[in-house]
Write a structure and sequence with these properties.
Length: 90
Amino acid sequence: MSEQTEKAPAPKPTVEELRAGIKQTRAELGETVQALAAKADVKARAREQVEVARERAAETVRANQVPIAIVAVGAMAVVGIILVLRGRRR
């Protein structure tokens, strides 16, 4: 009965295992520090958000060519009307 309840002590890690663990911990810590530094860089985050907004706008424009054509024709019509009205005044 005492054999089932008692646990054998875990074997002590070797020097190489300890070094590997330290190396892994350092790598993880470096990644964490880089992530925190990126979050703290407000200017870079703002630039990134602007770039994302530009990409979304460009994608929307590419997907919806008809409304852009209608706006362009409307603008040309307004310019034409203004030119005709100015010509009549002279």
